[in-house]
Amino acid sequence: MLIVQKYGGTSVGSIERMRNVAARCLATARQGHQVAVVVSAMSGETNRLLKLVSEIHDDTNDREVDVIVSTGEQVSVGLVALAIRAAGGKARSFLGHQCKIVTDSAFSRARIVSIEGQPIKDALAAGEIAVIAGFQGVDEKGSITTLGRGGSDTTGVAMAAALGAEFCEICTDVPGVYTADPKMEPAARKIDVIGYEDMLELAAAGTKVLQLRSVEYARRHGVRLHVRSSFSDEPGTWVQEMEETQMEQAMISGVAIETDEAKVTLDDVPDRPGVAATVFRAVADGGINVDMIVQNVSHDAKTDLSFTVPTADLPRLKGVVERLVEEIGALRFESDDGIAKISLVGAGMKSHPGVAADMFGALADEGINIDMISTSSIRISCVIREADAERAVRAVHARFGLGDEPAAAG
Known about the structure:
The chain is of the alpha/beta class. Strands 3-6-2-1-9-11-12-10 form an eight-stranded mixed sheet, with helices on both faces. It has a four-stranded antiparallel sheet with strand order 13-18-20-19, sandwiched between helices. The protein has two domains: 2-173, 3-Layer(aba) Sandwich (Carbamate kinase), CATH 3.40.1160; 243-405, 2-Layer Sandwich (VC0802-like). Helices cover 36% and strands 25% of the residues. Helix 1 (15-30) packs across helix 4 (71-86), helix 8 runs antiparallel to helix 9 (212-221) and helix 11 runs antiparallel to helix 12 (314-328). It has 14 helices and 20 strands.
């Protein structure tokens, strides 16, 4: 059986922790499995490299920036491979261009197009543990690319799909996926099993355990994920396809909070066909993802248009919106980075009326005002003040009893 393991920056944050990773890989191999391991840069290393870049250059979406930040993983794979060899195993390291992980040319946020994989298969056939650099690839012109924050998750899942692995272990500094952030809600429970749909919504809503794109890739290719701690052998959370009966047993999977978003409002926007298309086409052309959108009722052929974007994109967005205000004839724009988005997620809520009312009631009982609301069939999201984030999580978590019952049937 082939198993892909992925270890994040905290898991390889020191030589001692790399030795721990090597021991875990060897333990898996000694159970008779082939092992491919994907590793991130050591914790803090990517931030250190980006800080160096910022002293010279202010745009991270640049070919040369990817050349720089990809070096963190190059160090990690070499050290982990040496640690495996020092512990008595056989290992070979691979960078993105050696695998070969081919991506598009969207620097700092590239998407995987294909994986050659044969060099990895050859190493496994030779009895070696393949140690693969996460987060990086190469475009068709031979330029080094990176996959964005958390991109090593996507590398791990993509490698599992390309190699036909039994599953992909995402080994991290938490024991699994919880019904809420345990740092905010001590009563949060670890989820034993969760479906792709719920995990996608939780990842999109701010749960930092898995990168959103990695879950999308896993669902598309049917890769089972096991999210577990790098520092213990206890079972974690399985992310996989769920039966309808399993989804009904867990009406709500969890509560997520996102504090790295900002709200942008265009005031007195002319209410005529094509204006919204103009606004969001310009934002998209700037490479900025929009999350929630709310347009107010028109008065005197004018309306207000609000939407949320990642806080990191706000400086770039302001230039885009300044041009838009003049182009479409709006009065002005305002931005607010003091917000948070709280989301309630659960595939079972589709068949349970009153979930939204209960969520709004929990926030109202805490005196928390709602700025914006967005819903899907399995998610309800509210924009609130960032200062209210922790109280909101605890109130909603308690209202739905998420700390009282198992979050899913195993």
